[in-house]
Amino acid sequence: xxxxxxxxxxxxxxxxVETGNPQGRPILFIHGFSQCSRSWSRQLESDLTNDHRLxxxxxxxxxxxxxPQDGYNDSxxxxxxxxAVVHSLQLQQxxxxxxxxxxxxxxxxxxxxGEGAIGGMHFVGGISKLGSEAALSVLTPEFLAxxxxxxxxxxxxxxxxxxxxxxxxxxxxxxxxxxxxMLDYNVSVPPRVRQALFARAFDNDDLLPxxxxxxxxxxxxxxxxxxxxAAEQHKAAMPHAELHTPNAxxxxxxxxxxxxxxxxxxxxEKAAASxxxxxxxxxx
Length: 284
Hints:
This protein is 44% helix and 17% strand. It is built from 12 helices and 10 strands. The strands form 2 sheets. Strands 1-2-4-3-5-6-9-10 form an 8-stranded mixed β-sheet, with helices on both faces. It has a two-stranded antiparallel sheet with strand order 7-8. It starts with a strand and ends with a helix. 43% of the residues are buried.
């Protein structure tokens, strides 16, 4: 595993890890709320490393990336972070794979930088808007009930809420040791960062009908955080998207990693073939 320090938006230093085949098709993993790049360990330590260049970033405020005091409501800064990783590491037409909050960041990137430099997008239990009744309608009552404690400044209260968040994400699919590691990096995110992420009020759904790059939507039918309605809405706005609905919860990349990894690899290959076809047609 190679680590990188990448300068993102506003000078924020981002922690990025890389593994896999340096000549393989790149996949950039973007984690969810209060998580970090280690969420993707079952991809970064899998057979995906044979054929793909795998890169995972810690979002600003998370993991080993900087925790700036402000700027979390600025779409351009989030876009700049992703652009910095793609550009600095010279990722050629990467698949952007975002979990939960991650697709919000992917769409921030698309809004400001377009689709030209990426090969495709994978939304995993993803959302595309915040801060409205429409945004709340795709989140489960169980998750919404936990939000106040997740944003609490009280260490005990927030820690307990984060344990509940892990239950909603992973159920009983993580060992005690794995859960402790997860809790450690969740707790390391300052409450002010979690508050700032939820304070964003914006809607990226206007971008969805304009997207032309290949899209894969993975939505667990037993997701206890994001309702299947979210993926249905995304599919309706992007008819060309592939929709996969495993019998899984919010983290199918962890609980059903073999199937997830196989589908992601196949999608990356298909996206690359599609890009080659478009390029050949343009040359002719």
